[in-house]
Amino acid sequence: MKTRITELFGIRHPIIQGGMHYVGFAELASAVSNAGGLGIITGLTQKTPQDLAGEIQRCRKMTDKPFGVNLTFLPTIQAPDYPGYINAIIDGGVKIVETAGRNPQPYMPILQEAGVKIIHKCTSVRHALKAEKIGCDAVSVDGFECGGHPGEDDIPNMILLPRAAEELTIPFVASGGMADARSLVASLALGADGINMGTRFIATQEAPVHEKVKQAILSATELDTRLVLRPLRNTERVLANTAAERLLEKEKSLGSSIKIEDVIEEVAGVYPKVMMDGEIHSGVWSCGMVAGLIHDIPTCGQLIDRIMADAESIVRERLEGMLAP
Ligand SMILES: Cc1cc2nc3c(=O)[nH]c(=O)nc-3n(C[C@H](O)[C@H](O)[C@H](O)COP(=O)(O)O)c2cc1C
Q1: Residue 78's pLDDT is what?
Q2: pLDDT score of 75 more than 80
Q3: pTM over 0.70
Q4: Domain for residue 96, yes or no?
Q5: Residue having the nearest C-alpha atom to atom 7 of ligand 1
Q6: Do 181 and 314 contact (CB within 8 A), yes or no?
Q7: CA-to-CA distance for 183 and 304, rounded, in angstroms?
Q8: Ligand 1 pocket test: which of 17, 20, 280 has the largest number of ligand atoms within 8 Å of its C-beta?
Q9: How would you label 239-258 residue by residue, b for 16+ Cβ within 10 Å and e otherwise?
């Protein structure tokens, strides 16, 4: 399958693995890239730019295919050393960066000068248009279903994707709620050039996370996510667990007086405990509604091959078969 995304990134299949905190290590990124998709290392999971440089080298040893690095621009007071991380990306020869969060504009010139292609992840048509305007090569459009931060507009992909297609000139991938060939074919029909998956890739053999995390995703249905941190305008879709219920109780009782300090226990330093130690109730962690469509733990190769083979049969048999001869 050839789309503007496979052409742009030089990949075989139009499938991207979105950056995921404490999941997007070299093991997963290289497995996705070796399977013909685009694997992405999560930049900020690496504590220092030197650590990111090391992770890029590790990934390069595991794959000779293109892979990218995610740079999430957080609304924090004490910003991480973004220039340092960007140097590690450029010096490491990485040619694709997935940006997310705040506007990546301040860092675009240096990345572009180094020949790095930028795909910006955003949750609204206006932000996608802004990304196009500032020179991003592509966008990843994250619908309300997505695991992680869906923004504050609550527009599901059935509307968001065709709206993005109406407005954008640059290619975009559909993100949020993507699990299988049906997701891919539907996204292409809605105007996207490929898909980006987060939660689905956690439940794979190569995802270097605790087995309990994978089993929690397998056990979850589409009803088992919660939206937290909305009163702080930093909405996050997380797996329903004891920490999420406690956090929602706090949101209810504190109302509009809630502050970030009130929720530290549920949000700070959670990811290593969950992803590495398997303490799945130790805090809130991102998970998409798509958990309801995840029933197995394949290798990345099996998953991507299955998506591409099934997509072909959906198009050639199911869809074409519906047309009058
Ligand atoms: C556990 C987890 C951690 C994530 N961490 C990040 C992150 O650090 N930066 C980022 O840009 N997106 C992050 N995301 C969002 C994913 O890259 C992707 O956009 C999202 O998962 C797509 O929705 P889906 O889970 O329905 O596939 C994370 C998602 C999950 C599930």
Answers
A1: 83
A2: no
A3: yes
A4: yes
A5: 20
A6: yes
A7: 12
A8: 20
A9: bbbebbebbbebbeeeeeeb
Mean pLDDT of 255-277: 95
Ligand 1 site-directed mutation target among 22, 123, 146, most atoms within 8 Å of CB:
146
Beta strand residue intervals within 90-218, DSSP E: 96-101, 117-122, 138-142, 172-175, 195-197
Count of domains for the chain: 1
Determine the atom of ligand 1 nearest the C-alpha atom of 101: 11
pLDDT tens digits, 3-57: 999 999 999 999 999 999 999 999 999 999 999 999 999 999 999 999 999 999 9
Domain annotation covers residue 80: yes
For position 74, what pLDDT does the model report? 85
Q: Can you spell out the DSSP letters for 249-263? A: HHHHHHGGG--GGGG
Cα of 175 from ligand 1 centre, angstroms: 9
pLDDT of residue 125: 98
Beta bridge partners of 40: 68
Does residue 157 belong to any structural domain of this protein? yes
> Which secondary structure element, helix H or strand E, spans residue 40, and what is its range?
strand 39-42
d(CA 149, ligand 1 centre) in Å: 8
Domain membership of residue 114 as a residue range:
4-207
- Rounded to an integer, the average pLDDT of 291-311 is 98
Residue 54 falls within a domain, yes or no?
yes
173 C-alpha vs ligand 1 centroid, how far in Å? 14
- Output DSSP code: residue 291: G
Handedness of CA 86, 89, 94, 100 (dihedral sign): negative
Residues enclosing ligand 1, CB less than 6 A?
Answer: 18-21, 23, 42, 70, 72, 100, 121, 142, 145-148, 175-178, 196-200, 285-288, 290
Using CA positions, which residue lies closest to atom 4 of ligand 1? 20
CATH of the domain at 125: 3.20.20.70
